[in-house]
Amino acid sequence: MAKLQLPDAILVDKYISGDENCLAILVKRHQSKIYGYIYSKVLDRDVTEDIFQDTFYKVIYTLKQKKYYNEEGKFLSWVLRIASNLIIDKFRSDKKMPLNRDTDDFSVFSKITDSSRNIENILIKEQVNIDLKVLIEKLPHDQKEVVMMRYFLEMSFKEIADLTGVSVNTTLGRMRYAMTNLRKLIEKNNIYLPS
């Protein structure tokens, strides 16, 4: 029973030293927060389950490697950062699929009947999204991370700051630099952004 009361950092150390039960305690201690965080971003129970499991596969792998783990006193923040990266990866792969497939379930041409939008607007919007994703990939990692979390995962600046382990001011600064850099890249690449 005494093990259940131990702080996260000690449980992590004990797990790294070979006590497998310590990870089970950590998972049980934080699973509702981690699961809830993932679900709040993806809004799908099956996807949440997958990402939750993948998160702990990555946690286990990283802790077993010992040299790659740098907790800085915040196990939960570290795990949420891993989950956030997996959510971003999932979002990227899901968002690419509709742009590359033309099936009965999803067809650009099925949108023609929508009187509020025409095919030209759809194609322009898709091309702009493709162009922006390419440009975002060219940003430095910390700026790209903030843009992805803010605009694609719709996270608040405070949530981003907590997950990345920096202050809100640093997060805002990274976003400002990212927007400046994106504007420069848009001009340099002659990308048209409809208003």
What is the gist of this entry?
The protein is mainly α. 71% of the residues lie in helices and 0% in strands.
Protein topology:
Elements: H1 8-16, H2 21-42, H3 45-65, H4 75-100, H5 119-138, H6 141-152, H7 157-164, H8 168-188
Protein name: Sigma-70 family RNA polymerase sigma factor
Keywords: DNA-binding, Sigma factor, Transcription, Transcription regulation
Organism: Flavobacterium aureirubrum
Helical content class: over 70%
Q: Which architecture of the largest domain does the CATH hierarchy give at level 2?
A: Orthogonal Bundle
User: Helix- and strand-based class?
Assistant: mainly alpha
**CATH class assignment of the largest domain:** Mainly Alpha
What is the fold-level CATH name, i.e. the topology of the largest domain? Arc Repressor Mutant, subunit A
Radius of gyration: 20 Å
Strand/helix succession: HHHHHHHH
State the end-to-end CA separation.
61 Å
Low-confidence parts: 96-116
Question: Can you count the beta strands?
Answer: 0
Whole-number total of structural domains: 2
Organism: Flavobacterium aureirubrum
Keywords: DNA-binding, Sigma factor, Transcription, Transcription regulation
InterPro entries: RNA_pol_sigma-70-like (IPR039425), RNA_pol_sigma-70_dom (IPR014284), RNA_pol_sigma70_r2 (IPR007627), RNA_pol_sigma70_r4_t2 (IPR013249), RNA_pol_sigma_r2 (IPR013325), RNA_pol_sigma_r3/r4-like (IPR013324), WH-like_DNA-bd_sf (IPR036388)
Pfam families: Sigma70_r2, Sigma70_r4_2
